[in-house]
Amino acid sequence: MTQQQWTxxxxxxxxxxxxxxxxxxxALRDSDxxxxxxxxxxxxxxxxxxxxxxxxxxxxxxxxxTLGGYSTIWLARALPADGHLVTLEYSxxxxxxxxxxxxxxxxxxxxxxxxxxxxDSLAELVDEGxxxxxxxxxxxxxxxxxxxVEWSIKLTRPGSLIIxxxxxxxxxxxxxxxxxxxxxxxxxxxxxxxxxxKLAGTALQTVGTKGYDGFxxxxxxx
Length: 222
Fold this sequence. Notes:
Radius of gyration: 17 Å
Number of helices: 8
Shape: globular
Strand order of the largest sheet: 3-2-1-4-5-7-6
Helix content: 40-55%
Number of strands: 7
Number of domains: 1
């Protein structure tokens, strides 16, 4: 298999099962125009996030890493009318783009974009006594992945889902001798999921328009 084949299959699956609409297309367009990196989830991955949130019956969602709000839109569309999504973004520029995209999508009343280092924002949520989140999507700086998982456990409830994106790192995750901080952080997060008594999880490899990668999925236990 080649990248060309992976992309062709993704194109077919996306056009069939996760077709673009003006809101999602505009979100990507505005993100590109603002110079944001082109690292949003693929459309079929966004649809998967939406379906997982719907299957979960999520009323409260936490996203760590907003970028331009593309994945935020997919997740927020799964919420009921009284639902709420909090998304954490380090860059004020990215956050402004995301807010505009969420407002265009009609989701600004359901969503809250918090700006600053995610570890600080997560600590603030705990200090505020934030109600437990039903689903957490982690897609930020990979070196801090184990810390994000730890905070996510504190901010969830038994039965909640924690999803960690980009865990395969083009296969480099299998390299125990790596000096790459992103891979080290990802390995530490996976090892935490494996040993933590409050988590049951797994991870899958994926291929597609974004290349060779994967994600981890963990359920919070009693």
